[in-house]
Design goal:
globular, eight-stranded parallel beta barrel, three-stranded antiparallel sheet, 478 residues, disordered N terminus, alpha/beta
Length: 478
């Protein structure tokens, strides 16, 4: 009986503290799988990089996950949208990301993180690979691991993004990408309490795509423990454009065939063509259709914030407010139509597949690298892996005390969204589309400047949990 009380009260007080954690997601064959429930995990994601790559300035003290107030606002909007994953490209490992990461954890949103940045010496340079692959570069890469390894909602790290893209890069870059993948895995194994997947994000350059996937996902010597092999493969693809596109005209049928025998999770690490505006996101139904999900694991819409390239869902205004674009509403409606129960159903065959053995025969392009000799560690890198980087900025989960969004956010109809807040989820739950309609149901048309009424979103959740726990205790005492 006491053990039942312990369970009930640990659930309740864990929710009150705000530090309950999502369950880790693991790679199992070609699927992402919840480590506790064994449900399949499909990525319903969005790219999150306010300011774009140009907005990332070394030494500024700012990156996308360093301001808790802004993360609270954006997490609330993403939770309503139905997002379960964000991709963040440019991070400063010296900054404190605890509150932002904890906010996204509280609402059941996972993080896919790039370890590189556009700054000098912080990514592989395809034109000078041997020099850019250095211990100084790896020190930065490992710093990102230290900053995010302890967050349960860290879904994985990208060892590279579109490194193989321009003619000539396909012949020299692949072994170096496998080297960085190896280095990340070795550092994680040595300094993290859990295994965190490492993958690659590829450009949709069809001349190189199949070979890139084959090269990165095979196992050298057929070993299942090959540390140079990626754990997942992301594809940045914008081939579905406008309402007239189809599964065939977008080439999705070709992708299903190309990745049909995958032994690792494959997903769109970017998608969402903007040639037709506003975007209607018809491709969402195709991305999560039975034809696609038997091979692929969802995708990441590009992108959350409206920048000069006009892919955004939300405008960030100069006065600190934010405005939802009609694209957000269109995407929300598409997500609300998804069959989440079907998407979470497992595939026992997909989770037991083994990687093919690396060989030149896997590569069809004449100019693509057929060498699986992975570069040795640069000078000083082994010491970093063995002993860890100096003075690491180690992230940790913290209590999320505030749930209400103070800044005004306007719906696409111009009205203030009332009572905007995050809704902390019980432990082990990831966020899913809720059927909300941000266009009208929560946007009241309140004139700008009027103060929205505040409700304690977390308080309602805690009271519901208290009543549930009390009922369960009552049953146990009978």
């Amino acid at each position: 009986m006491l053990s039942l009380f312990g369970i009930f009260f640990s659930i309740f007080f864990g929710a009150i503290s705000g530090v309950s954690a999502v369950q880790n997601i693991k790679v199992q064959g070609a699927d992402y799988v919840n480590n506790v429930t064994s449900d399949r995990f499909q990525i319903i994601g969005i790219a999150y990089q306010p300011g774009g790559s140009a907005g990332f300035i070394a030494g500024s003290g700012v990156d996308p996950l360093s301001n808790g107030t802004l993360c609270l606002r954006d997490a609330a909007l993403m939770q309503r949208l139905g997002i379960n994953t964000i991709r963040v490209y440019n991070l400063d490992p010296s900054l404190n990301h605890d509150l932002c990461a904890s906010i996204f954890n509280a609402v059941g949103i996972y993080m896919l993180l790039d370890v590189n940045s556009p700054l000098p010496n912080e990514s592989l340079n395809p034109e000078d690979l041997s020099s850019s692959y250095s211990s100084a570069y790896l020190n930065r890469v490992f710093g990102v691991v230290e900053a995010f390894k302890n967050f349960p909602n860290t879904l994985g790290f990208f060892s590279g993004n579109e490194v193989i893209q321009f003619p000539g890069s396909e012949g020299v870059a692949p072994p170096y990408i496998r080297a960085v993948t190896r280095d990340l895995k070795q550092y994680i194994a040595k300094h993290s309490s859990r295994n965190i997947p490492v993958g690659y994000s590829a450009a949709d350059v069809r001349d190189f795509l199949a070979d890139t996937f084959a090269y990165m996902s095979c196992a050298i010597d057929g070993s299942s423990s090959d540390e140079t092999r990626i754990d997942f493969f992301g594809l940045n693809s914008y081939s579905w454009c406008g309402g007239d596109a189809t599964f065939q005209t977008a080439g999705y049928d070709i992708l299903v065939q190309m990745f049909g025998n995958t032994t690792i999770p494959v997903f769109f690490s970017e998608y969402g063509c903007n040639e037709v505006k506003p975007r209607v996101f018809d491709e969402v139904q195709a991305v999560y259709s039975p034809e696609m999900t038997r091979v692929m694991s969802g995708g990441i819409i590009y992108e959350y914030v409206q920048e000069a390239n006009e892919y955004g869902l939300v405008d960030l205004n100069d006065n600190g407010t934010a405005s939802i674009r009609i694209d957000y509403d269109n995407l929300q409606r598409q997500f609300n139509e998804l069959d989440i129960e079907r998407l979470q159903s497992g595939n026992s065959t997909a989770t037991t597949l083994e990687a093919p053995r690396c060989s030149a025969g896997l590569i069809s392009g004449g100019s693509f690298s057929k060498s699986f000799r992975v570069p040795s560690l640069p000078s000083g890198a082994q010491t970093l892996i063995d002993n860890g980087i100096q003075n690491p900025n180690i992230g940790k989960l913290v209590e999320v005390e505030e749930t209400n969004v103070e800044a005004e956010v306007y719906g696409s109809n111009g009205g203030v969204i009332q009572n905007l807040a995050i809704r902390p989820l019980p432990e082990d739950q990831s966020n899913t589309p809720s059927g909300q309609d941000t266009t009208g149901a929560t946007s009241t048309g309140t004139p700008r400047g009027e103060e929205p009424e505040s409700t304690g979103g977390a308080g309602h959740l805690q009271m519901n949990l208290l009543l549930t726990c009390a009922a369960l205790v009552g049953l146990a005492l009978r």
